[in-house]
Amino acid sequence: MNKNKVIEKNRNIEGSKAGVIEALIQNFAFTKNQATAIAELRFYGLSKTDKQACLNEREELLSAISRI
Predict the structure, then answer these.
(1) What is the DSSP letter of 14?
(2) Which ranges constitute the DSSP H helices of the chain?
(3) Superkingdom, according to UniProt (predicted)?
């Protein structure tokens, strides 16, 4: 199993941890317990949805800073 493929797939999944778990089961034939453990790893926070939330917050902060 190539961990980079798992990480890349995880980053491109939109939605909740449950969505990540389901995608890992379907795409890599992990058991539910394995997929849950992977989804709870630190890189879960790098999902596409979380990344977009961070980018949005960054833009808001930059805008607030520019007004100061």
Answers:
(1) -
(2) 3-11, 17-28, 32-39, 48-67
(3) Bacteria
